[in-house]
Design a protein that fits this description.
By secondary structure, the protein is of the alpha/beta class. It contains nine helices and 15 strands.
Amino acid sequence: MMTKHYGGQSMVAPLQSVLVRRPDGAFSEADPLLWHYADQPYLPLAQSEHDAFVNTLLGNGIEVIYHDEPLPDHADAIFVHDPVLMTDRGAIILRMGKSLRVGEEAAVERTLNRLGVPIHYRLSGEALAEGGDLLWLDPKTLCVGLGFRTNLAGFAQLGEALAGSGVELVPVQLPYFAGPEACLHLMSLISMVDDDLAVIYRPLLPVPFYQLLVKRGIELIDVDDEEFETMGPNVLALGPRNCLTLDHNRATIAALEAAGCRVATYRGDEMSLKAEGGATCLTRPILRDVS
């Protein structure tokens, strides 16, 4: 039997292979005002940070695959998590809610074709959905953040894509917060780090979603206001209670360690903090081992 090289409907199962994109000229030349960046990224340092980030993944035995198709004028393309959702049936190609990012979807599909990952479904028409709004609570529960980047038409088409798979889609209404130009994904507010453990920013968490987490018996680690500003809730699970996150968030790291997590950190002053994208955003898991 051929070993499957894609899938894993989980945020926390052991990460086997992942797609990344090294910062390039499109990223460093981005107009901060247009892209809603805090400042102009400095490319040599951004690339150095990314290389170290990749080395941490490699050091954890994870296969790293580069999505390196040139994408001029697509600064956010380094955040490879967003244009696609991986399922056990194959990839679902999404439609970006940020108009400046349109075009990333077709490019990542070409990379997936090169890797032999089947394309199960493509969102179309008025449907919008970004990967940062899509959170596997477990292999049969997909939480979908509804906000400026993901709409009801996207929710409906995701339902069509997953029909017959036994997956329940849970809508999560996102707050207005800083408005349409800012990036507030569902995963700006929560990261799963084990089946029964999540990092959250409680003040912006929708009440019904919070109640669902409590009902599921998920232990919650709170991120404070200061570390929310530096993407404290953005934690990449390399495996159950094995995490990778920004080095600035010392209180969140301490809370994760107190909950029994192994925590690796990375420096992301240029590629993360300036551009509003953390460890999860920088990676698109291709395969997680849910066996």
